[in-house]
Q: What sequence folds into this?
């Protein structure tokens, strides 16, 4: 199936710093989603993007659906300790049986 | 509102023993249901998905099987567990068809095969 390349694999940042991670693919997707997984829990949806070029915010989180429909990024501003976790991008092509996930970005925030 | 329940939360099983993990969804009908496995610190690997009762699609050949005996129930099974079956198993659901609401995940089952 289509591969999603998510980077970076891991990040170690200081509290208060901004974070940026992205996801790219060789295939076009019609929906991009970003999830966060806390340790020992299932991933939780943070932001969903439905149109090329769309920029959506959720509190300190901002995500964009790339113009080419082959990429997306997630920014976190002014990081706090509870931002720690694994962030996954996901792309959906035509229907809900066709969702692909990136390998995740593990975020560590030092107080 | 819709909720998804997954149990047990943790499980330690000996090699060669059977496995049964259960997932149920409430508050919706005819959902798509999914089983994922996550190795330690790794990404999500889709194992099975189902678009209806008795309909199972397998993504990866393995030692596991899935069944959907009822509309909102999804079961992951194995007749004989292997050490390599250890991992974090996640059930998820989504609306059927082509809407854009993404997946909702359960809280996961940590399986350790010893």
A:
């Amino acid at each position: 199936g289509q591969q999603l390349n998510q980077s970076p694999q891991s990040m170690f940042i200081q509290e208060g710093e901004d974070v940026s991670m992205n996801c790219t693919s060789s295939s076009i997707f019609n929906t991009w989603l970003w999830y966060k997984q806390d340790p020992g829990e299932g991933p939780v949806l943070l932001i969903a993007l439905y149109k090329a070029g769309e920029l959506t915010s959720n509190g300190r989180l901002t995500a964009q659906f790339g113009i080419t429909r082959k990429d997306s990024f997630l920014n976190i501003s002014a990081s706090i300790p509870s931002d720690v976790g694994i962030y996954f991008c996901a792309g959906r092509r035509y229907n809900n049986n066709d969702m692909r996930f990136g390998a995740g970005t593990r975020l560590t925030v030092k107080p | 509102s819709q909720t998804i329940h997954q149990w047990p939360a943790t499980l330690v099983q000996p090699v060669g023993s059977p496995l049964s993990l259960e997932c149920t969804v409430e508050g919706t009908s005819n959902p798509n249901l999914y089983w994922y496995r996550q190795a330690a610190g790794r990404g999500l690997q889709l194992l099975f998905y189902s678009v209806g009762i008795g309909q199972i699609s397998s993504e990866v050949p393995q030692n596991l099987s899935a069944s959907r005996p009822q509309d909102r129930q999804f079961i992951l099974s194995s007749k004989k567990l292997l050490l390599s079956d250890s991992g974090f198993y996640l059930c998820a659901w989504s609306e059927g068809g082509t809407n854009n609401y993404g997946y909702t995940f359960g809280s996961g089952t940590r399986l350790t095969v010893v």
Observations:
- Chain B touches chain A through 27 residues (CB under 8 Å).
- The two ends of chain B are 38 Å apart (CA to CA).
